[in-house]
Amino acid sequence: MAHSNSRRHFMATSVQSVGLAALGGMLWSGYTDSVKASPLVLRPPGALKEEDFLTACIKCGLCAEACVNRETNIDKETGKARPGTLQMAKGGDALLIGTPFFVPTEVPCYMCEDIPCVPVCPSGALDMSSLLNEKEELDINKASMGLAVVHKESCIAFWGIQCDACYRACPVLDVAITLEYQKNDRTGKHAYLLPVVHDNACTGCGLCEQACVTEKPAIFVLPNDIAKGKAGDHYVKGWDMQDQERVKNAQGKETTTDRSKKTADEYLNMEVEY
Amino acid sequence: MKHIKYLLLRRTTQISLMCLYFAANAYGWHILEGTFGTSYLFGTVPLADPYTTVQVLATGFVLGTDVLLGAAIITVFYFVIGGRAFCAWVCPINMVTDLSNWIRRKLNLDKEEVNYRFIKRSARYWIMVVGLLVSAFVGVAAFEVVSPITIMQRGIVFGFGMGAAVILTIFLFDLFGVKNGWCGHLCPLGAAYSIIGSKSLVRVKHDHVACTDCMDCKVVCPENQVLHMINKESISVTDGECTNCGRCVDVCNDDALEFGIRQFVKN
Predict the structure, then answer these.
(1) CB B91 within 8 A of CB B152
(2) CB neighbours (10 Å) of residue B259?
(3) Which of B157, B149, B146, B51 lies closest to B95, judged by CA?
(4) What is the helix, strand, coil percentage profile of chain A, to 5?
(5) Whole-model pTM above 0.90?
(6) Packing angle between helix A2-36 and helix B123-138, nearest 10 degrees?
(7) How far apart are CA A82 and CA A74, in angstroms?
(8) What is the spatial distance between Cα B101 and Cα A127, in angstroms, rounded to a whole number?
(9) How many Å lie between the alpha carbon of A167 and the closest alpha carbon of chain B?
(10) Which of A136, A178, B207, B245 is deepest in the core (most CB within 10 A)?
(11) How far is CA A262 from CA A253, A258, A259, A272, A274, in A?
């Protein structure tokens, strides 16, 4: 009897342990999955795609330490370091805790030539190879932390007031942001100087956002995933040889619907139901 | 002083290490940079937490060689000196839970009737395994999302924010909830280090002839199940869950406990 009792006890506690582990595991998975979902965040230069970055980052903070203690950040008068660009997400930041990020209006990325934050990354979450130019040198202009977007209704340059604060602040001057001249029809004799951001050159450093003079910046950096659209493979620039290359191996796909089974004069005369 | 020798040594070690980590960020010192996830000693020797490393590997991400090397160095180090020496000598949460425990004893909360023992000490091993499964399933190192250890360490280095609430939670849980609740029952990092150090060289030795059965050691020990030999057998404390904190050595009035080297050959 003792034997069967102990076996029953063992079975019961085993089942209980496994059950509790499953319960805990599910709660834990749910929580972990939900804290992953914070796409509105700017990461350091060279960061992998957000999903991969969250997997790879070991949350050591070496990038943030390299950022704040870089030589160019030491205040010459006091000899002390100013606040660094990179912050480590804390509880309450609504980001995956312990991961590095930056907020341009607080401290933008100054695009250091030697990129101190990236080579120190031990895990590979900040990918140095993505920042190498043709000469295999670190080149901060290769960074793509995000994309600056202009809200033209609050940008005073679009009102006709002359302001080129973002244009002047841009480290990739006259390339990432250019000024487009347009005639101001309201006055008939003035020009608009409109800031236009160019995706292929903008690194997402946020110096424009910090420089913007409006109460809430009219130019701001958004993560690439949020700021950028995608035309898809079925739109091809027929005049661009390189773009043709892009869809060289595109596969055709024919979809059949109830409507497409009919002939043209049949379906064109059908009433449309919404 | 004799009665707090190892306690003082531990506090000195813990606080000095945290100061070095803090100074790496605040003043750019290159003595001990980073956090437990990965650190660099003197700017060159990588150190990495083995459990954190395994969690990231469980997601399928191939970590940089420095992290893997760092994890190997830490594993070998604690394999020799006792895995949970990390818990007692390095981890900042230890100071929080030790404070809980001290107040608990002062408030007489330490008695069995006011101690809710609804968690088993083995829970931590389950949590350790579940942590790896969740990491693999969700694709993010799961314990790092909630770990009070790194939250506290990053708090010291980079500022706490709301992370302080997590530390307070642990403090209250250990004080009013389960005795040694976090470190002794739940922490998967401690579980991992228990396994790493289960065959370690440095161990506390008991001399049962000298022992007067006062049980001071069992009162003060955060893992007192490892002291099963007290006044029974003259053997070493070989259980991996012993944190090598040395509090038992400190409080023993009979010189019946002392650090020594594990005997591999039985007499």
Answers:
(1) no
(2) 14
(3) B149
(4) 30, 15, 55
(5) no
(6) 40
(7) 6
(8) 45
(9) 33
(10) B245
(11) 19, 7, 6, 14, 19
Residue A196, SS3 per DSSP:
strand
Sequence ranges of the domains in chain B: 2-195, 201-261
Look up residue A261 and give its two tokens.
């089974």
Looking at beta carbons, which residues of chain B come within 8 Å of A58? 37-38, 48, 52-53, 56, 63, 67, 141, 144
Helix/strand number for chain B, H first, E second: 13, 5
Q: How far is CA B7 from CA B104, B223, B226, B247, B259, in A?
A: 18, 16, 19, 7, 14
Classify strands B202-206 and B45-48 as parallel, antiparallel or unpaired. Answer: unpaired
The structural domains of chain A, ordered by start, are 38-143 (no CATH), 146-229 (3.30.70.20)
Q: Is the CB of residue A60 less than 8 Å away from at least one CB of chain B? A: yes
User: Comparing C-alpha atoms, which of A167, A170, A171 is closest to residue A157?
Assistant: A167
Which pair of tokens denotes residue B139? Answer: 């694709």
**What is the Cα gyration radius of chain A?**
27
B261: part of which helix (H) or strand (E)? strand B257-261
Tell whether A81 is within 8 A of chain B (Cβ).
yes
Q: Taking the CB of residue A172, how many other CB atoms lie within 10 A of it?
A: 16
CA angle A126, A129, A134 (to 5 degrees): 145
With a CB cutoff of 8 Å and minimum separation 6, the contacts of B241 are B84, B121, B184, B194, B223, B225, B226
**Cβ of A124 under 8 Å from any chain B Cβ?**
yes
- How confident is the prediction along chain A (274 residues), in pLDDT tens digits per residue? 455 678 888 888 888 888 888 999 999 998 888 888 777 899 999 999 998 999 999 999 999 999 999 888 888 888 888 899 999 998 888 888 899 999 999 999 999 999 999 999 999 999 999 999 889 899 999 999 999 999 999 999 999 999 999 999 999 999 999 999 999 999 999 999 999 999 999 999 999 999 999 999 999 999 998 999 988 877 888 888 888 887 777 777 888 888 788 888 888 887 777 7
A96 vs A254: CA distance, rounded Å: 42
CATH top-level class for B201-261? Answer: alpha beta
Residue type, A127: D
Q: Is A20 on the interface with B (CB under 8 A)?
A: yes
Residues of B in contact with A81 (CB under 8 A): 26-28
Q: Residue B120: what residue type?
A: K
Q: Which residues make beta-bridge pairs with B204?
A: B259
Exposure string for A22-56, b = 16+ CB within 10 A, e = fewer: eebbeebbeebbebbebeebbbbbbbbebebbbbb
Query: Which of A158, A157, A166, A238 has the alpha carbon at shortest distance from A202?
Result: A166
